[in-house]
Amino acid sequence: MHVHVISGDGEAKFWLEPDIELAKNFRYSRKQLKEIESIIEVHYNELIGAWKKHFTS
Prior knowledge:
The protein is α+β, with helices and mostly antiparallel strands and 57 residues long. It has one domain. Helices cover 46% and strands 32% of the residues. Strands 1-2-3 form a three-stranded antiparallel beta sheet, covered by helices on one side.
């Protein structure tokens, strides 16, 4: 499971399992990546639930 993050500043892909981990980064700064990872942590259960709903429906 993974999540893509896209904005005017860049793009990134984070693995959600087995741990939250940066897979790819294009133009985000380290500070931005830390902020994104924090948001992913806060919404982790919601992201996993949405992934499962989308790919098992």
